[in-house]
Amino acid sequence: MANINLLPWREKLRAQRKREFGMAVLLAVLVTAAGLFFWHRYNEGLIEYQEQRNNYLRQEIARVNKQIREIRDLEKTRKQLIARMKVVASLQSQRPLVVHLFDELVTTLPDGVYLDSVVQRGKIITVQGKAESNARISAYMRNIEASPWLDKPVLRIIQQKGGKQGAAEFSLTMQQVVPKAEGDKSSRSTSSTNWISATSASGRSWSRRSRSCCCVR
Q: Does 197 fall in a domain?
């Protein structure tokens, strides 16, 4: 005799499939949520790591910029010191020139010639004075040419006052020169200064002196 199942098996099967589908959907949602959570945490970690790197780079950039400013300040100070050292070396090399200049002005001056003024601009010296005759002026120019510290006398103006017996007023220019021995000393002093300025970034602070033109009445 055949057995007939009268139970609602289709409804049970449908309900079981619904439960299985719901479990699968729930599992998929949980897996997706977990994946999204870990992906979000991973991105946050990357962002945090990049922020740390950015902060480190900003700190290093600020430190390097500070060092660059310090180097620029040191370079500026070095250039100022080098300029002062060159001025001092130049003044030291020219210090004896003034003494020799006045000495030569007296030595080369012949009898019968009187100077009213002496003006120096650089190496060019302009003198104005009076002479008893033109021959005295010629002798004065010869003495200048023979001097080791003076050279290239040029007579600019000559005027005879009071006829032939009167004094001759004249204006004369000459050039101050340095003898070879003195020039070698000056070159050695300048070379020493250049060597010091090239190898030293700091030095003593020197006061700058200015040289003024001399005018003798």
A: no
- Residue 31 inside a domain? The answer is yes
> Do residues 126 and 172 lie in contact, with contact meaning Cβ atoms separated by under 8 Å?
yes
Confidence of residue 217 (pLDDT cuts 50, 70, 90): very low
Query: For residue 57, what pLDDT band results from cuts at 50, 70 and 90?
Result: very high
- Residue 210 in any domain: the answer is no
SS3 content of the chain, % helix, strand, coil (to 5): 60, 20, 20
If one compares 3 and 76, the residue with the highest pLDDT of the two is 76
Question: According to the 3-state scheme, what is the secondary structure of 178-204?
Answer: CCHHHHHHHHHHHHHHHHHHHHCCCCC
Mean pLDDT calculated for residue range 16-45: 90
Q: Which domain holds residue 56?
A: 13-192
The CATH number linked to 108 is 3.30.1360.100
Nearest to 170 by CA among 140, 210, 205, 201: 140
Give Cβ neighbours of residue 203 (< 8 Å, ≥ 6 apart). Answer: 81, 85, 196
Would you say residue 2 lies in a domain? Answer: no
Biggest CA pair distance of the chain: 180
Single pTM value for the model: 0.44
Instruction: Tell me what pLDDT residue 181 has.
Output: 58
The two structure tokens encoding residue 99: 């003494």
